[in-house]
């Protein structure tokens, strides 16, 4: 790996001081080392360095996964790692100093906190959701936000496969009977899954993974999606939800939470299901009308169900799954052949590692190359990398207010130079411009920087070289 100018890896002593040692944890062969290998940037790609900042300082909170930490450290950034989140006053103190912050769901990056983050250029949410960040305020300050929405798809798909077998064999009931000292050997209404039909509602990242796994276990797969999507293997798309419900022995739900999917499974849908079929919901809690499910299970129409998500979920672990949380809690818990899990579909070491890899890679690309691909609050702009064969090139990143006339002013400034490539896009009030210019020296870079900084539309200027 060749670095262009001067991102100096810190000495080992300092790295140890700033970052904790690896924790012993299980990594599957596909996870950690190969994750690191995959982010190795091709040999002749030039690492760029932000102009007008010190070496990159990164603050990682909430025990961000090691795969992510390693990627950032490997870049030579100064990485400070903390296992917990911070109270707001301490967070404000720390955030003033850093260019990059990595958080999970507990750290609230409100406008009040971000206002103090004078050096911050990017936020990495090492999780799925981004509600904990004031995305609009961040965008208005030119701070990009990245997350990892699909890193746990495989984990969810595997859980669903496990649940299909558990439901078909009433496994959880037998297990809890044994825990209570009861030997109850039965085969009545216990089935193999081979030859049964799985109906997947929502054939996206999770639905498609599941389709492949289910077929390999001898199931026939049909799916319903609002989009026309190419089938994997011998799976078959059906035109309506009703068609799916009428054919499937197992129905599993993988749609996003949208106004259209709220209560998507209610009394009518349970009536349309096959007698003695099964329902699995690991999508979002609002998708299934739980009182209607309770009725369908009591009547025997639905022979079993697995729920991983609920309309109301507690904020932390503890004795919270009761009627205060959801009024039907006790009725639900009393049902037979019902698997209840606390939103763990995506909770695996591999998923955490994949999240670490994806978010840290996105942060690195943003810091080094200015690419906003995958950002949740900025337009997605990317240019191919500069190479070490282009020594006097620089990349201009100009984040600005999306108002008329800005591009003319920017191009007047860039116009004295040879602009090799340029891309711009906007999202709401914020626009993002990237341009690679050739044959520039340090003095000219400084002039360019000051000229862009003086424009009234400017939100943030970065020049990478
Ligand atoms: N249990 C967990 O821990 C866990 C983990 C990850 C994701 N999830 C949830 O799983 C769900 C699916 O995730 P994904 O990553 O596969 O999402 P995705 O966006 O990749 O796929 C969703 C699919 O649903 C389809 N869809 C949207 N509206 C629909 C409708 N009304 N009817 C039929 N199809 C519709 C979309 O076209 C898309 O193909 C989401 O709700 C997500 O929040 C849960």
From TrEMBL:
Domain of life: Eukaryota
Keywords per UniProt: Amino-acid biosynthesis, NAD, Oxidoreductase, Phosphoprotein, Serine biosynthesis
Low complexity composition-biased segments: 19-33
Keyword Cell membrane carried by entry: no
Molecular-function GO terms, alphabetical: 2-oxoglutarate reductase activity; NAD binding; phosphoglycerate dehydrogenase activity
Biased composition regions of type Basic and acidic residues, renumbered to the chain: 1-13
Segments forming domain ACT: 395-465
Recorded metabolic or biological pathway in which this protein acts: Amino-acid biosynthesis; L-serine biosynthesis; L-serine from 3-phospho-D-glycerate: step 1/3
Entry-linked NCBIfam families: PRK11790.1 (NF008759)
Protein's name according to its UniProt entry: 2-oxoglutarate reductase
Record organism: Penicillium oxalicum (strain 114-2 / CGMCC 5302) (Penicillium decumbens)
């Amino acid at each position: 790996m060749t670095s262009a100018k001067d991102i100096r890896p810190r000495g080992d002593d300092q790295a140890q001081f700033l970052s904790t040692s690896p924790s012993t944890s299980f990594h599957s062969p596909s996870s950690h080392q190969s994750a690191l290998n995959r982010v190795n940037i091709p040999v002749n790609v030039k690492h760029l360095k932000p102009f007008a900042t010190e070496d990159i300082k990164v603050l990682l909170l909430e025990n961000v996964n090691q795969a992510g930490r390693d990627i950032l450290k490997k870049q030579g950034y100064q990485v400070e790692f903390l296992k917990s989140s911070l109270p707001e006053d301490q967070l404000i103190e720390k955030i003033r100093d850093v260019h990059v912050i990595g958080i999970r769901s507990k750290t609230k990056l409100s406008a009040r906190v971000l206002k103090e983050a004078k050096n911050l250029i990017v936020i990495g949410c090492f999780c799925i959701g981004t509600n904990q960040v004031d995305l609009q305020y961040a965008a208005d300050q030119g701070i990009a936000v990245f997350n990892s929405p699909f890193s746990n798809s495989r984990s969810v798909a595997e859980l669903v496969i496990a649940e299909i077998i558990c439901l078909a064999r009433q496994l959880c009931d037998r297990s809890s009977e044994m825990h209570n000292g009861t030997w109850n050997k039965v085969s009545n209404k216990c089935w193999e899954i081979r030859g049964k039909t799985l109906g997947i509602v929502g054939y996206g990242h999770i639905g498609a993974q599941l389709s492949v796994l289910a077929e390999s276990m001898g199931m026939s797969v049909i799916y319903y999606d609002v989009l026309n999507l190419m089938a994997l293997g011998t799976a078959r798309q059906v035109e309506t939800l009703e068609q799916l419900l009428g054919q499937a022995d197992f129905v599993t739900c993988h749609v996003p939470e949208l106004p259209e999917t709220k209560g998507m499974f209610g009394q009518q849908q349970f009536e349309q299901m096959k007698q003695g079929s099964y329902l699995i919901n690991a999508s979002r809690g609002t998708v299934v009308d739980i009182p209607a499910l309770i009725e369908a299970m009591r009547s025997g129409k639905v022979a079993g169900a697995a729920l991983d998500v609920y309309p109301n979920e507690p904020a932390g672990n503890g004795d919270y799954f009761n009627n205060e949380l959801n009024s039907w809690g006790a009725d639900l818990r009393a049902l037979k052949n019902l698997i209840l899990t606390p939103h763990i579909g995506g909770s695996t070491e591999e998923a955490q590692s994949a999240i670490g890899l994806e978010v840290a890679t996105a942060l690195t690309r943003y810091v080094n190359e200015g690419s906003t691909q995958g950002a949740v609050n900025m337009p997605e702009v990317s240019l191919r990398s500069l190479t070490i064969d282009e020594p006097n090139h620089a990349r201009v990143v100009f984040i600005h207010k999306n108002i008329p006339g800005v591009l003319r002013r920017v191009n007047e400034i860039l116009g004295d130079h040879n602009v090799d490539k340029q891309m711009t896009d906007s999202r709401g009030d914020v626009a993002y411009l990237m341009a690679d210019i050739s044959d520039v020296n340090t003095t000219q870079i400084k002039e360019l920087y000051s000229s862009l900084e003086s424009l009234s539309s400017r939100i943030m200027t970065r020049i990478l070289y």
